[in-house]
Please model this.
Amino acid sequence: MTNHPHPSPAALDELSAAPAAELRETLLEICSSPGWAASVAASRPWSDRGALLAANTAAMAALTVEDLADAMAGHARIGKPTAGDATSEREQAGIQGVDPALLDELHEANAAYEAKFGHVFLICATGRTAATMLAALRERFPNDAATEAEIVRGELRKINDIRINRLLDGTAV
Model:
């Protein structure tokens, strides 16, 4: 995780003081689970960045299977970032300019994963290459559904942490 030696108290204070509807909208840009957004919102005000990140961790730990499905619904398939979605394109930058044969392998592995688990393969793609994402997909494919759900929960928490830090640093979520 990136160290943030210069927290942005103004951004944190603004987020803490935001009207409920505005805060909900902002939180749903970070994670598309209404349950997650409600849990994080209920934990305010946050004394510092660490408190908000801890709220993310606690909210992720409490998500139901349905909440996890809601959270995953907000994520593009690995290897196919959502066109025009800057967040999706930035987070999947590791697939840009990749050999088409590798992308084909990634798409095939995704299809097999989705057929087995009933949802997209979710991984914190920031800083990962297409090859490392494909390797992780193949490594996780043998998992049972319960094991995979817990891995997904952890990956979502990492993605949310990155998005929260970007928000607090004043960069696009």
Notes: Residues 1-7 have pLDDT under 50 and may be disordered. The radius of gyration is 16 Å.
